[in-house]
Structure formats: structure tokens, C-alpha cells
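retry 2 of 3: previous attempt timed out while embedding NAP. Reduced batch size to 1 and resubmitted. Inputs unchanged:
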Amino acid sequence: MSTILITGGSGLIGRALSRTLRQNGHEVRHLSRAVLPRHSGDEYPTFRWDYRKKYLDLHALDSLDVLIHLAGENIGTQRWTPGQKERIRSSRVDSAHFLFDTIQQQQITLKTYITASATGWYSDQPEDTPHTESDPPGSGFLAEVCCEWESAADRFEAVSVRTVKVRTGVVLTAAGGMLPELMRLFRYHLGAVPGNGGAWINWIHLDDLCSLYTYLLESEQLSGIFNAVAPEPVTQRECMHLLAQYFRHKILLPYIPSLALYAALGQRARLILKGSRVSSNKVVSSGFSFNHSRFEEALNNLLVAR
Ligand SMILES: NC(=O)c1ccc[n+]([C@@H]2O[C@H](COP(=O)([O-])OP(=O)(O)OC[C@H]3O[C@@H](n4cnc5c(N)ncnc54)[C@H](OP(=O)(O)O)[C@@H]3O)[C@@H](O)[C@H]2O)c1
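retry 2 succeeded.
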């Protein structure tokens, strides 16, 4: 049993992960900008921090074994103005440096540091083979943020803390993120294929992501980078057609020109229009098994079977 502190534990992944970790017998605490839990049923001891003011309630660090850094300004909800880009970067990177400095100053003997990262690390240009963890970073804003985010984690590794970086794809859940957004569009018969439909979606079912974090936390022999993506990614075109089948609507699925998406979403459009395949082989070879490997089956689990 480990004592685990999660930054951003109130978020989409953090809430589900906290439940899984607790079910596995771990003690879970949250580090939050707000003191009170904002979702009913989330009864985790919650400690306040504000990395910009270099404030952290030090009680959060009592007998701490594992720190999981999930906090970060959401990348999908607002236009990427210069100010928003800085919030996206700083909330992941400056916060991680602040966590490291505080842990060092307080002389906490941390066993494990686990940080979220994203498949945005990789080049989003079409490639013949799926990206593996040793591939170099791509270019552009997201790749730059991922580089800085992961470099901040290297400071923990440098002082012999077991460090794990979870390069996460698009998380699939009915509780938030991509799937409910798409379902809303389909309900109004507004399903459409963005661009030429060829961009890859490296998705992962939220339950598998929680199992994967737990597996990486409990497998003390593992460290380094792991892609958190299902073994079978889908293209935007396949995703939209599978959703259309689910709704059994006669949906025309027109293609939306890339220019129109850039006009509507600004630089965020790249999240939808670009995407190359990412491999899950490393974590599978290490012994992890996915419960949801195929997109169609994951959709069925999330939308029909529950
Ligand atoms: N969801 C995905 O599909 C996905 C994919 C790849 C990577 N990831 C990464 O995984 C992590 C967790 O994702 P998520 O979907 O759970 O995110 P989320 O639902 O947006 O929650 C993130 C949490 O971070 C904290 N936070 C938000 N803005 C912040 C800011 N400006 N400064 C400091 N803290 C802030 C909030 O916690 P408090 O309000 O309690 O402080 C929030 O609950 C993120 O770093 C994300 O980039 C997610």
C-alpha cells in the first residue's frame, strides 16, 4: 500500500484514477487549487497549492511515497492565444519544477514520480510505422510543451526517484472529453469528417488508462516513458463512421475543409486535423494487458453496455 498525492486529482483522469487506486488499497490525497472537493463522492483528503505563488500545504507531503502530476490547464476548451498557451505550459512545467524544489527542500524521500505527458510529443506528420517511445519529438507548440514537461520530470530521475512518464493519447469516456462532444454533434445530425479524415486518433479507454497508471505505479522494476494508447488506433474517418452506425441516423458525414476548422478553432484545429499512429508495444511487452483494444468495442462498452 502506498501513500499517493495526485495534482489535478479533481480532473477527468484524476477522479477515475483516484477511485482505482483506492480500490487497490492505496491511500490517495489530492493537491488542488481549491480546498473543497468539487464533485460529490470525491472524498479524498485535499490539500491546497498554488505553484505561481510557490505555496503548497506541507501536510500533503507527510509520509508520501508516490507523487502523480496530472495538473494542467485544459488544452481543448479555449483558443490558443499567447496567454492561454503560457497557462497550458506553465501549469504543467513550472508546477513540476515547483513540486521538485519543494520535495527537495523538505527532504522527502519519494519512491516514485509519475507524470502525465501526451502523444502530442510525436510528430503529427504521416509516418510509415507507429511512433515508439524512443522517437524524437515533433515540432510545434504541443511537442514543445511535452518536451519541457518531461524534462522537468528528469530532475526527479536525476536524484534517483523512480520516474515514469505516461504519454497519453485521447482518453475515451462518456464522462468528458472527446466522446460526449462528438455525441452531442451526432444527436443534432451534425456528424462530419474533419479534413480528409486520414488523421489518426490514438485513443485509450479511461478504465484502461487507470489500470495502466496503477500497473506502472505498482511495477517497481519499470521506469521511463510509456505510451498510453490502445493497440488499435482509428482514423478520424473510421471514428465518425462507427459513431454514425451507433446512432443509426442517416448521417451524411460531409468532410469539413481544414481551412474552415482553422478559422473556427484557431491552432487547436491541429489536434483534430493531424495525427500519426503511436505504438503501445512497449507497455504490452512489459506485461500489461488492455481490456479495450478495439475502438468499436470500447464505444460499445461506454455507450451501450453500461
Ligand atoms: N484527457 C485526455 O484526453 C488527455 C490526453 C493526454 C494527456 N492528458 C493529460 O493528463 C492530465 C490530466 O488530464 P485530464 O483530462 O484529467 O484534465 P482535466 O480534466 O482538465 O483536469 C486537470 C486538473 O488540473 C488542474 N488544473 C487545471 N488548470 C490548471 C492550472 N491553470 N493550473 C494548475 N492546475 C490546473 C485542475 O485541478 P484543480 O482545479 O483541483 O487544481 C484540473 O482538475 C493533463 O495534464 C492532460 O494534459 C489528458
